[in-house]
Structures are given as structure tokens and as C-alpha cells.
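Kindly review this protein for my students:
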Amino acid sequence: MKSAIYALLCFIFIILSRSQELTEVGADKQQCKKNFPGHCETSERCENTYKRLNKKVFDCHCQPFGRRRLCTCKC
């Protein structure tokens, strides 16, 4: 009986440790959002604009936002 409880506690500890690692990995991939003047042309233009700001970004999307464009990238 003691060994079964011990095994269960070890299993729970391993699962909790693994979920914490996954949470930390997911936290590294945050989103950068910024409004820029001008019309939304391409997602590549958003990425280039962010790179001029010395930011490392990828997977950018450009969305119209009134007379501006909203660039959403992962950084």
C-alpha cells in the first residue's frame, strides 16, 4: 500500500514539473502589437518595420485598423 501511494505521489510530481516547463516555454512566445501609420499592405512590411526597431520578430500579420495598420508579430 505504501509503495502504491509513493508511486502515485511520484507520478503527480513528474506531471506537475512537466506542466511548469511547458508554461515557461509558452511564455517565451509573446506577441508584439503596434500601430503604424499608413495602410496595411503586407505582413512582410510589418516584419520589416519591427526589424528597423531592432526587434526580433517572426510570423507577422497585418490588419487594417482605421487609417492605420496593426502589426501583430511573435517576438
Notes: The chain has one domain: 2-74. Strands lie at 31-37, 58-65, 68-74. Residues 16-28 have pLDDT under 50 and may be disordered. The two ends are 50 Å apart (CA to CA).
